[in-house]
Design goal:
Layout: H1 2-32, H2 41-64, H3 74-95
């Protein structure tokens, strides 16, 4: 039963990270299309915080992935990797019940 609890905690953390990746992506698009401006203190603070949180996760993925020019696929790779980790942990947690 403890494995189910640990899985749920890790799953919750994975969902938070995926949400922050999506926030970074959307905010990056809004900044790129000048919908929001980094001269706004709130936007700059959120952008800096999100990048500070995700950079340790995205940097190793960016080193492994090939350079695709202007498009950065590392957030998508992180989301896919975390989703796969979540599936593996779920199956391990439920397998420990039997």
């Amino acid at each position: 039963m403890i494995f189910i609890t640990l899985f749920e905690l890790v799953s919750y953390l994975i969902n938070i990270i995926v949400t922050v990746v999506i926030v970074q992506f959307v905010l990056g698009l809004l900044i790129s299309f000048n919908v929001v401006n980094l001269h706004n203190n709130l936007v700059a603070a959120v952008w800096q915080a999100v990048n500070a949180i995700l950079e340790p996760i995205l940097r190793p993925v960016r080193r492994i992935m090939p350079n695709t020019g202007a498009i950065d696929f590392s957030p998508m790779a992180v989301i896919i990797g975390l989703s796969m980790l979540q599936i593996i942990l779920k199956n391990l947690a439920y397998a420990s019940l039997t």
